[in-house]
């Protein structure tokens, strides 16, 4: 564990690359149609696992189809705004960390869609959550009012059932996925 902690901080390892974001401000929506695909990029497959999952914080590891891997610490209980710290890590270490996951490993493909001045991320889930499609938009401020595209359905910001953490811990019953998705 000491090796991992040391590689997380640029103060301990001059070669470590940190992508630090002080605040994550995002809104989350169900997706009501496939029209977003007309504007989407090619997408990237993501696998993610939680190493720690508490009410007010989580430590997540992700691997990406392009070979990258990232460790993310999120802190805060607000549905809209949380502290977020991200660190690029070695792919082999990330895969080893996934073997220590709390709950399920989440599988999804993330697409980016430019709408107005914002980039929407559309996650198409596989595995246990096959059929679930969620769109998120990150904001610079809580006062931002992004253009809401016509393919976006019901807002689920703050609905814990749609958090990746809840899905990993099995708090969103897989049988309920289709029923929830059709409420878009």
Description:
With 184 residues, the protein is mostly beta strands. The chain has one domain (17-181): Hypothetical Protein Pfu-838710-001 (Beta Barrel). The protein contains four helices and nine strands. It has helices at 2-8, 91-98, 164-168, 177-181; strands at 18-31, 44-53, 57-64, 69-75, 81-88, 106-115, 118-125, 133-138, 152-155. It has an eight-stranded antiparallel barrel. The termini are far apart. Mean pLDDT is 84; it is low at 1-21.
The fraction of residues in strands falls at: 35-45%
Order of helices and strands: HEEEEEHEEEEHH
Largest sheet, described in full?
8 strands, antiparallel, barrel
Number of strands: 9
Summed up:
The chain contains 4 helices and 9 strands. The chain is mostly beta strands.
Tags for this entry?
184 residues; 14% helix; mainly beta; Hypothetical Protein Pfu-838710-001; eight-stranded antiparallel beta barrel; globular
């Amino acid at each position: 564990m000491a090796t991992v902690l040391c590689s997380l901080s640029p103060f301990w390892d001059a070669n470590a690359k940190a992508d630090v974001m002080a605040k994550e401000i995002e809104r989350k929506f169900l997706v009501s149609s496939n029209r977003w695909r007309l504007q989407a990029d090619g997408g990237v497959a993501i696998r993610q696992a939680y190493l720690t999952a508490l009410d007010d914080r989580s430590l997540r590891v992700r691997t990406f189809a392009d070979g990258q891997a990232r460790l993310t610490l999120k802190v805060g209980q607000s549905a809209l705004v949380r502290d977020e710290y991200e660190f690029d890590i070695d792919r082999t270490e990330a895969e080893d960390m996934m073997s220590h996951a709390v709950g399920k490993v989440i599988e999804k493909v993330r697409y980016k869609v430019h709408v107005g001045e914002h980039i929407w991320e559309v996650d198409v889930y596989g595995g246990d959550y096959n059929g679930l499609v969620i769109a998120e938009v990150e904001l610079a401020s809580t006062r931002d009012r992004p253009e809401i595209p016509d393919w976006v359905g019901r807002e689920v910001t703050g609905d814990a059932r749609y958090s990746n953490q809840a899905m990993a811990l099995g708090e969103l019953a897989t049988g309920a996925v289709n029923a929830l998705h059709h409420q878009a």
